Amino acid sequence: MATKVLVSSINFYPDHAGIAVYSTDFPKYLAEQGDEVTVVTAFPYYPKWEKRKEDKGRLFASETWEGCKVLRGYLYVPRRASAMKRLIHEATFCMFAACNFFRAGRQDEIVLFTPPFFLGFVGVFFKVLWRSKLVINIQDLPLDAALALGMVKKGFFAKTLQRLEAWIYRRADQVATISPVMLDNVLEKGVSRDRAILVPNWIDVKRASEKAEKGLFAAKHPEGRGKFVTAYAGNLGIKQGLDLLIELARSVSADERYHFYLIGDGADRDRLVEMAKGLRNVTFLPFMNSENYLAMLRDVDLIFVAQRSGAGNNFFPSKLLGLMSQAMPLLIAADEDSELAKVIRSAGCGVVCPYGDIAVLKHALEDYSGGKIDAREYGQRGLKTVWQYDRAAILGGWRDAIRLLK
């Protein structure tokens, strides 16, 4: 008899960035293994922070996707998310998710992808009601990151949220995190070691390493043709620390050999665009579909990834494994003790610069462009390393670990 599994996440296909990559592929994998899978999610909105025209005003919908039953519910989507608006955004999702849990009926296992951690209240309630196993996969610790970055003030409200978060995690049968540092954070919140597990994010390496045809991106964007091109692609948010890429571009603005692309959208985009005014060597582009994204990776010389100082223990860039699969050389700006810096140094697939040090970043950029760093060798090291995160091994092991829960 097939195991009935309910997977819930605020992001799911056709959302295609961040958590959605994993909260979409995990239920698909379970369905491939013969499990009976129901997904409880919202109407798609990410990463543009905008619902599709046909979804506006809808409260519920159901569909079938890749062998999974998908139940969608309403959520409020602000165009620009303040702290209060984000709170309302997450609360509306959880309210309608609870309704969809009832629609789904009793399940053997409940797997939540968080944030938002509020979804855990729904999970705990239905764990008790259905006597099901409850698993929480933590992709990000946004409250810890917001406190570390000063985005949320320390005080009674923040402490209350932290206590509620810890209460939820302690009531799960298993709490999975994506990095060793995040695992330590969860243990500090009171989760017992026998219930905490490291499940790194994964990728289908063979599929993800397929290359696009060379020249397609350059043909559409001639401003970078013949130059050494550095690109960032993803969420243009505060945690990403993209001020540094603008400042790096400014530091070499008199040198016509360089061009920079910032690709994507997010809460910090307007400020970054204003910051880059007058820089002829910086181009902003919207989010790309998979085909155009791979074409971009084929034509640029270097990929930039940053984490604002203080945020490195609370989230991990979801794009990293895809970049390593494409054998891309990397320029990293992050705290020395961050998980991102440790992974890159261990793999030897990029140069890690202290966050905020433009002089060191500029020196690394010049070493890459001048051939002092073997970019191809760095890329190949990344590709070799990423095989340890291959989809079949990671998801097969995690599924087995969930089945062994008592």
Structure description:
The protein is an alpha/beta fold and 406 residues long. It folds into 2 domains: 213 residues, Glycogen Phosphorylase B (Rossmann fold, 3-Layer(aba) Sandwich); 183 residues, Glycogen Phosphorylase B (Rossmann fold). It is 41% helix and 19% strand. It has 16 helices and 14 strands. It has an 8-stranded mixed sheet with strand order 3-4-2-1-5-6-7-8, with helices on both faces. A hairpin with a 2-residue loop joins strand 3 and strand 4. Helix 9 packs across helix 14. The longest helix has 22 residues. It is globular, with a radius of gyration of 21 Å. It starts with a strand and ends with a helix. The mean pLDDT is 90.
Give the structural class.
alpha/beta
- Taken as a percent bin, the fraction of beta residues is 15-25%
* CATH architecture descriptor text of the largest domain: 3-Layer(aba) Sandwich
Gyration radius (Cα, Å) is: 21 Å
Features:
Rossmann fold, alpha/beta, globular, six-stranded parallel beta sheet, 19% strand, eight-stranded mixed beta sheet
